[in-house]
Amino acid sequence: MSQSLTDITPTPLSDNAPPRDLYAGRRLAEGYPGLDRLALDKFTATLDAQADDTPRLERLLGRLNRLIDLDRARNIIVLGCGPRPQTVKHLLERRFNVIGVEPVPLFVESARQYLGDAAHVMEGAAERIPVPDNSQQIVFCDSVLEHVVSPSDSLAEMYRVLAPGGIAFITTTNRQRFSPTGYNGEFMFRFFNWLPRLLQESLVHHHLHYDPRLANYSQLPAVHWFTFAELCARGREAGFAQFYSLLDLMETDDPGVGGSRLKRWLINKLKRNPWLRALALTQRGDTIIMLKR
């Protein structure tokens, strides 16, 4: 594979290329100027263009209810809730006790305006969740773990705030996933997840300091890539004892499954055949549910 930075075709917020002399009179450590506002504008525009997420959330809650009793599990943390916390809003409408946690101050302000309520969004991070020990039944960590400074500290913090019997629902990057287009995640660079680690770090540096179009203007670009087995290992180090994928929680009568004989056959086989489950998780291993005993 041969590809240079000039081959990248991201979708910028404007047609203007990044200025060449970014650091005349500025320190390199200051990073790309105005990236926080660019990140908010880009992320908000992306969310506004997406379809209603309610059907997906309802399907997810139905599947999680097969693992734990959601009539009893009412306290929920949503990590990295973002500037348009649809998940928080939907869970509040379902009368869960939910708090969104967000590390970016501009996103916190926007999220509170979106909800019309400051009480349900707190500034914090996955490594420092601002709630007491053993106080939550569910932690949602949806497309967040790849962005954090320390995955190990983040998982340990999720374990701390969960009550026994609680779960951490995590979706993240999949290092083994193959996409025919080559695009996997936010980086506008084909086959990024398969690149050597040193080249990945150089692209992250280029994004943060010279051209934020490279990772869709993210202030905290995805820098961690996992396999399902690695997530299990990191979860055990944090104290979690049991691990599930969404494949484990699917049933043959689920929407989109019941009408297909092949899908019903595959679900039954995946649940009972460790070899097939392992093969499936090379491509579907970006979601894991960790259970605290």
Structure commentary:
There is one protein chain. The chain has 293 residues and is α/β, with parallel strands linked by helices. It contains 10 helices and 7 strands. It has helices at residues 35-49, 54-64, 86-93, 105-115, 151-161, 197-209, 228-238, 246-249, 261-272, 274-284; strands at residues 75-79, 97-102, 121-123, 136-142, 162-171, 242-244, 287-291. It has a 7-stranded mixed sheet, with helices on both faces. Helix 3 (86-93) links the parallel strand 1 and strand 2 (97-102). Helix 5 packs across helix 7 and helix 9 (261-272) packs across helix 10 (274-284). The protein is globular and about 60 Å long.
Chain oligomer state: single chain
Give me the number of helical elements: 10
User: What is the string of SSEs from the N terminus onward?
Assistant: HHEHEHEEHEHHEHHHE
Global geometry:
globular
Report Rg.
Answer: 20 Å
Total DSSP E strands: 7
Biggest pleated sheet: 7 strands, mixed
Low-confidence region ranges: 1-15
The portion of residues assigned to helices is 25-40%
SSE inventory with pairings:
Elements: H1 35-49, H2 54-64, E1 75-79, H3 86-93, E2 97-102, H4 105-115, E3 121-123, E4 136-142, H5 151-161, E5 162-171, H6 197-209, H7 228-238, E6 242-244, H8 246-249, H9 261-272, H10 274-284, E7 287-291
Parallel strand pairs: 1-2, 1-4, 2-3, 4-5
Antiparallel strand pairs: 5-7, 6-7
Helix pairs in contact: 5-7, 9-10
